[in-house]
Write a structure and sequence with these properties.
The chain has 351 residues and is an alpha/beta fold. It has 14 helices and eleven strands.
Length: 351
């Protein structure tokens, strides 16, 4: 907001109210009247044309020296007309309606609550997406975190059961650290409990104050364990206004991978694409299938564009008028002009 040097009631500081920087700072409601100020000197010319040219003249005996010289009184007699012109100029400024707008824009961002539900089952070791599906899933989460701002993000990991790796937080560095240090946990039950993972994510989201709630499910398999059916979890998401974005990783079929001790293992991988599509559709989310790193990059960019923070703007506009300052000065100069009409400054012989 503007900080004015003088209070608006201190109209008598004329030197301040006529400063160029003060006049430039105004918003003029009717700026056309300002052109009239430039035309006020024309009144002098008109007075000379219609008053002095056509006035009645009386013969007065004066010596040559008095007629040729311009004395001080002759100059002072321009004061009344000058006062009148100044008064008119101030009236024109007042009619132009000088104003100042103290505008305040308050902007805040309403973040989104996001929970990643990431599959860490045995099949995620498959390397058809380099360096492995597991590492690709971690990178998906990190890339999306890097693109977010003001969102609260949590992480749930699952295989045959689900655990919370990180509750909802704005500490993105902590989230990245947890993901980088994440290993596939053999202590968890084997299998793929998609419904249970969604239920755990829902528990993290359902009591959050903001209405924008999202689960990003990353998996390469089908629901084979857990106590909750994925469609039941999807129905709960509808009740809590939660969208589910599903990312299916890899190709179906038999794949081989090296275990931690270097042993070659074979595993059958089959993505339940229909179920993932259905839970996404029911919750008004999207389903994506990724076969390589290029398709993953496109998916990350698409999700980032679909779900953006809400920016809320509050605008306050306080308009303050200054016209009456100049109207007051117009009255002052008009009164001074009136007073000079009854002094020696007025040439009664000419009137």
């Amino acid at each position: 907001m503007d900080n004015f040097q003088y209070d608006i009631n201190q109209w008598y500081y004329l030197h301040y109210w006529l400063k160029p920087e003060v006049l430039k700072s105004y918003i003029w409601e009717n700026p056309t009247y300002l052109y009239g100020i430039a035309a006020t000197p024309l009144l002098l010319i008109l007075r000379w044309l219609f008053y002095y040219r056509f006035r009645k003249k009386y013969k007065v005996a004066l010596n040559k020296r008095e007629t040729k010289s311009i004395n001080l009184i002759q100059i002072l007699r321009f004061i009344p007309l000058s006062l009148l012109l100044i008064s008119i100029s101030f009236i024109l400024i007042g009619l132009a309606r000088p104003q100042k707008s103290n505008e305040t824009n308050t902007q805040y961002t309403e973040g989104i609550n996001i929970v990643f539900a990431m599959d860490i089952s045995e099949s995620m070791k498959i390397t058809d997406i380099h360096p492995s599906r597991f590492e690709a899933a971690k990178q998906i989460c990190i890339d999306i975190i890097n693109k977010r701002k003001d969102d609260r993000i949590g992480i749930v990991v699952f295989s045959g059961e689900a655990i919370t790796l990180s509750p909802l937080t704005n500490d993105y560095e902590l989230l990245r650290t947890n993901l980088n240090e994440l290993k596939q946990n053999k202590a968890l039950e084997s299998g793929t409990a998609i419904g249970t993972a969604l239920g755990t994510a829902i528990n993290r989201l359902k009591k959050t104050p903001t209405q924008e709630r999202i689960i990003i499910l990353i998996s390469d398999g089908e629901n084979t364990s857990g106590l909750m059916d994925p469609m039941t979890a999807a129905d709960l998401c509808v009740d809590y206004n939660i969208k589910i974005y599903c990312i299916g990783l890899g190709k179906d079929g038999t794949h081989q991978f090296k275990d931690d001790d270097g042993t070659i293992q074979y595993v059958e991988s089959k993505l339940d694409e229909n179920t993932l599509k259905n839970i996404s559709s029911v919750t008004k989310g999207k389903f994506y299938r990724a076969y390589d790193k290029k398709s993953l990059k496109n998916i990350i960019e698409t999700i980032d564009q679909l779900e953006k923070n809400k920016i809320v703007k509050l605008q306050y506009n306080d308009i303050k008028d200054f016209y009456y300052i100049y109207v007051k000065w117009a009255v002052v100069f008009f009164l001074l002009w009136t007073l000079t009409r009854i002094t020696f400054l007025n040439n009664f012989l000419e009137d």
